[in-house]
């Protein structure tokens, strides 16, 4: 049985470190140019060098996105950038444009190329075509069912790796190739600057009645006709592995450290639990509950089993479900005093009931009974953003453990 790679998003260096700490086999990120998440933070050339060294020192892999739909002017400086990625020994470059593929093959022929989901690969003829063009991995379009994935794996060379999304935001356009943002906000979705107008509230206007707006709504707040639920395939791990997929991809380079850590942790545990004893495996419903504790839209299985219906759209609201607050990151723990040093991410107060998240383990709980500032003066709460404070723990914790509390 093939063990799939768990591939997590890394919008910046902090998220990269937490993705690996919580169980990712590989991360994907972008440099300051040529990637499709302009607001993700991304990596300068110096930071990218640091990131590659950090990942490789831990025996993991790092993939860099160059998946813009390129115009002529976008190729300025690209050849030098490709050479730099080759020098860094990045494990893979993710692209969507045939011109960029050609430039990579010409400039750095040993650099591994992965075809982005932006290329909309939905069949094995396309997959074989890209393989003939020098592509070593295909990130399939989100619009492909598991049945189709099996057919693609069966009908493509063994040397071609197949990657699919298993969790994260869905898009109304084929794998994200959307023009709404260009026309409505002058922000190019295909260059990483999407304004997500598909989440906005709409009314209907008839051509000859320009000043009359007819609301199209489910309730008094309106409707969000393009607003897909979030993809979640945590209960389909056996079927995904059986399909022969090489890499399970989590979406979310613009999401928080808490999101990246939580989602990676849940999928890592469920994948490992299945692979350790496939014959006796049963899905743990607690995994769903864990994924509901992060900020998310309602979940859907997307195209995995069948084409989505009206039930896979969210007609009530474009807002996220936020049942838990991410409240802190453990920086250090003194076993003798049972005091943890913590960086605040949201307010904690005496009496709060918190949950502690640790890699590959079930979460722990405790009440907050003692808080101190850096000078060991007692506190009633931690009101200042990212303040460093101390907390009495009822059980051991470790650096990079995360704290959350129910809203």
Characterization of this structure:
This is Putative protease. GO terms for molecular function: peptidase activity. Belongs to the peptidase U32 family. Keywords: Hydrolase, Protease. It comes from Alkalibaculum bacchi. The protein is an alpha/beta fold and 407 residues long. It folds into 2 domains: 255 residues, Copper homeostasis (CutC) domain (TIM Barrel, Alpha-Beta Barrel), CATH 3.20.20.380; 83 residues, Elongation Factor Tu (Ef-tu), domain 3, CATH 2.40.30. It is 24% helix and 22% strand. The protein contains 10 helices and 20 strands. The strands form 3 sheets. It has an 8-stranded parallel β-barrel with strand order 1-2-3-4-5-6-7-11, surrounded by 5 helices. The chain has an 8-stranded antiparallel β-sheet with strand order 16-15-20-13-14-19-17-18, with no helix packed on it. Helix 1 packs parallel to helix 2 and helix 1 packs parallel to helix 9. About 1% of the residues have low confidence.
**How many individual β-strands?**
20
What is the element string, with H for helices and E for strands?
A: EHEHEHEHEHEHEHEEEHEHHEEEEEEEEE
- Overall pLDDT level: 87
The SS-based structural class is alpha/beta
Number of domains: 2
Top CATH class of the largest domain: Alpha Beta
- Helix content estimate: 10-25%
Largest sheet: 8 strands, parallel, barrel
What is the fold-level CATH name, i.e. the topology of the largest domain?
Answer: TIM Barrel
Shape: globular
Radius of gyration: 23 Å
Reported CATH architecture of the largest domain: Alpha-Beta Barrel
């Amino acid at each position: 049985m093939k063990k799939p790679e768990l591939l997590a998003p890394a919008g910046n260096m902090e998220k990269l470190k937490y993705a690996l700490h919580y169980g990712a086999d590989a991360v994907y990120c972008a440099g300051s140019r040529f990637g499709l998440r302009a607001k993700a933070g991304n990596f300068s050339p110096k930071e990218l060098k640091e990131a590659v060294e950090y990942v490789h020192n831990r025996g993991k892999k790092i993939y860099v996105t160059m998946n813009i739909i390129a115009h002529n002017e976008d190729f300025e400086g690209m050849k030098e950038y490709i050479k730099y990625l080759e020098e860094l020994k990045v494990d893979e470059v993710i692209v969507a444009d045939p011109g960029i593929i050609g430039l990579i093959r010409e400039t750095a022929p040993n650099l591994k190329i992965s075809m982005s989901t932006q290329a909309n690969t939905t069949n094995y003829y396309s997959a074989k075509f890209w393989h003939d063009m020098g592509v070593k991995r295909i990130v399939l379009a989100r619009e492909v069912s598991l049945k189709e994935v099996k057919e693609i794996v069966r009908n493509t060379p063994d040397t071609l790796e197949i990657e699919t999304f298993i969790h994260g935001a869905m898009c109304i356009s084929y794998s994200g190739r959307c023009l709404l943002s260009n026309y409505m906000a002058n922000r190019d979705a295909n260059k990483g600057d999407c304004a997500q107008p598909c989440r906005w509230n709409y009314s209907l206007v008839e051509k000859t009645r320009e000043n009359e707006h007819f609301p199209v709504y489910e309730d008094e707040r309106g409707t969000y006709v393009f607003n897909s639920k979030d993809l979640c395939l945590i209960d389909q791990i056996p079927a995904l592995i059986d399909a022969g997929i090489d890499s399970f991809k989590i979406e979310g380079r613009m999401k928080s450290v808490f999101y990246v850590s939580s989602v990676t942790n849940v999928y890592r545990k469920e994948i490992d639990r299945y692979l350790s004893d496939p014959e006796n495996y049963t899905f743990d419903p607690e995994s769903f509950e864990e994924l509901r504790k992060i900020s998310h839209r309602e979940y859907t299985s997307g195209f995995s089993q069948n084409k989505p219906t009206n039930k896979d759209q969210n007609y009530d609201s474009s807002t996220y479900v936020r049942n838990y607050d991410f409240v802190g990151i453990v920086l250090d723990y003194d076993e003798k005093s049972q005091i943890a040093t913590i960086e605040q991410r949201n307010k904690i107060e005496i009496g709060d009931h918190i949950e502690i998240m640790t890699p590959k383990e079930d979460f722990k709980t405790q009440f907050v009974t003692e808080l101190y500032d850096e000078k060991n003066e007692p506190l009633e709460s931690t009101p200042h953003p990212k303040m460093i404070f101390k907390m009495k723990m009822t059980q051991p914790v470790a650096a990079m453990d995360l704290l959350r509390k129910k809203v």
